[in-house]
Amino acid sequence: MRSEPIDTVSPTLTLGAQRVSDDFARLMGACEHLPPVPTAVVHPCDESALRAAVEAAEAGLIEPLLIGPARKIIDTARRAQLDISPYEFFDVAHSHAAAEQGVALVLAGEVAALMKGSLHTDELMGEVTAKLRTERRISHVFLLDLPSYPRPLLISDAAINIFPDLAAKRDICQNAIELAHCIGIDVPKVAILSAVETVTPKIPSTLEAAALCKMAERGQIRGGLLEGPLAMDNAISEEAARAKGIDSPVAGKADILIVPDLEAGNMLAKQLTFLAGAEAAGLVLGARVPIILTSRADNVRTRRASCAIAKLYVQSRQRPTLAAAD
Contact, 42 vs 117, CB < 8 A? Predict the structure, then answer.
């Protein structure tokens, strides 16, 4: 029996709502005049993966290097009526070799991003975690464009870390904050989610939320404004936050939602996508280069948006180097 009551104040998101903003269009505009990112496209051997790479290249977002069995890629392009003649090939025997070659190109400084093709995510991420790790924990960030929410909404981590501990959540927060900076949110409001908004040892995620907020106060998480624990309703609805008596600049106006674990994050992102009309782009951060994960369920806009945020992220990391060179 649950001993902590979970209130059910109605959130502001409504099914079938009219779109009040077009965050993905603004992203595309923000990177329109930036050079395309040299990107290793790992094993694009089905139509969905190859089309995603070609569409992103034609939009000026990436400069693709296609890695995989050349004959299979060429046959896929022919069946899908895609022109891949402008792009460089790396002919390798199978998907694992493609992942190895993509990582090798990163280590050689020849590409600034990786893009997942038709291989399994674990196969690519196994090579990445073995050879491209940094001091930062690798994590995934969803960027959602919601019809009824007046700002972009980032959710992390819903794809990489299954049951992150406090140290991992610190890095998950920092990765999401830095991506928010790249898309023009100077001081992102970060809501650490749980089932309730009070700290209780019966719900461990509330303890971790409180600890993350204290870590931010002490400078261990930088660049954002953290609040937690917050339930989902009072993270995104100012009305719900007022009803609960929560006085916080984050409550009701979150830019970033940090979820307790992968299951919660994955379900939340997919619920918003399939029930509330959200479009979801995504990026893996914390490795030496950003990794674009596309899905067969993605539409053209979300594929391009994922590449656009990778482009903005790469550009933001190059700025200090350019300034130093001047």
Answer: yes
pLDDT tens across 232-282, in order?
999 999 999 999 999 999 999 999 999 999 999 999 999 999 999 999 999
Whether 77 is in a domain gets the answer yes
Question: Which parts of the chain have pLDDT scores under 70?
Answer: 1-21, 319-326
Count of domains for the chain: 2
Task: Classify residue 33 by burial, with Cβ atoms within 10 Å: 0-12, 13-18, 19+.
Answer: exposed
| pLDDT at residue 18 in the model | 52
Closest CA to 281 of 25, 18, 35, 14: 25
Could you tell me if residue 107 is inside a domain? yes
CB 166, CB 210: distance < 8 Å: no
- Domain holding 97, by residue range, is 29-133+288-326
Write the DSSP assignment of 231-297 as a string of letters. Answer: -HHHHH-HHHHHHTT---SSTT--SEEE-SSHHHHHHHHHHHHHHS--EEEEEEESBSS-EE---TT
272 found inside a domain: yes
Element (H, E) at 9: none
| 8 Å CB contact between 302 and 279 | yes
pTM of the model: 0.89
Q: Are residues 72 and 121 in the same domain?
A: yes
> What CATH number should be reported for the domain holding residue 87?
3.40.50.10950
For residues 139 and 277, state if they share a domain. yes
User: How far apart (Å, rounded) are the C-alpha atoms in residues 209 and 182?
Assistant: 24
HSE-up of residue 218 (Cα within 13 Å, Cβ side): 8
Question: Do 217 and 79 belong to one domain?
Answer: no
Query: Please, which residues have CB within 8 angstroms of residue 86's CB and are 6 or more apart in sequence?
Result: 57
- Residue type present at position 52: A
Q: Is residue 17 part of a domain?
A: no
pLDDT at residue 21, as a whole number? 58
224, with CB counted inside 10 A (0-12, 13-18, 19+), is: buried
